[in-house]
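Please, structure for the following, as tokens.
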Amino acid sequence: MKQIIKNIENNISKLGILALLISLGIMFSCEDNTLPETGSIADLTAPQSSFSFTQGVGPDEEWKDYTFSNQSQSSTTYSWAFGDGDTSTEIEPAHTFAGEGTYTVTLTAKDGLEVMSTSSQEITVIKPLVVVAITPEISGADFEDIAEVCGTGDSRDCWRLSGAAIHKTTSDGESDTRGVKYPSGNGDNRVTYQAFSVSPNTKYALTVRYALQADGDAIRASVIDGQLSNFSEFASATLLGQESGTINDGKGNFNTITVSFETGANTDISILFDHDGNTKDSYLDNAAVKPE
């Protein structure tokens, strides 16, 4: 009888251990130890494909070059199709199109669970028009008094400004041609002014030749944003650039003043040359304004 009871107890013990092992197996089998890859949140945040692009800028063929900015969310891998047969798996690729045309660029973004999102944009690749900047014609730029210049034959009539005394002309210009003469002394300040039109948002350079005879003397070149009706407006005018020539190489030995400037939105500008009581006569010749 005792042996029968002992056998029953052993069987119950074995059944308990077996039940325990089965229970543990169920617990472990219910756990999911697989984690989504970086950037993926299962069942909460699906991938969202999105991108922008920028066209290249430059003097040659850069207009064919595009760079792409990847703005996708919750994604780990990317596949680009540029609409011309080329593809890429880079996050933010650069691509050169063969030429002008309309291309459908597609970005497919995936997360670690292989959930995907696709977005497409049409890109019209066009070679930019080359805008030729205006090269203004400066009337009487060489200060020669010739027939019909400025309508009168007197080059000074191209350069007058109300409220200011006009420069004198002289045969002591560059290479013994006619040019501007600014007489010496504080009581005889002369002004040389002209207004004209230029291209907007364009870089230009004003150049003019000058000669001085005394150290400390100077001739000033100013580029004005806008046009003046009277010299009194000059003191408060907005300047696009201003430079002074101060090299004294003596009469007949000319140097260059260069004023680099950008026009901005205004297409109407003006230039003004003046001095401030030079101790000796000074000279000016051959003014020009050209795109840089």
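The first strand starts at residue 51 and ends at 55. Residues 17-36 have pLDDT under 50 and may be disordered.
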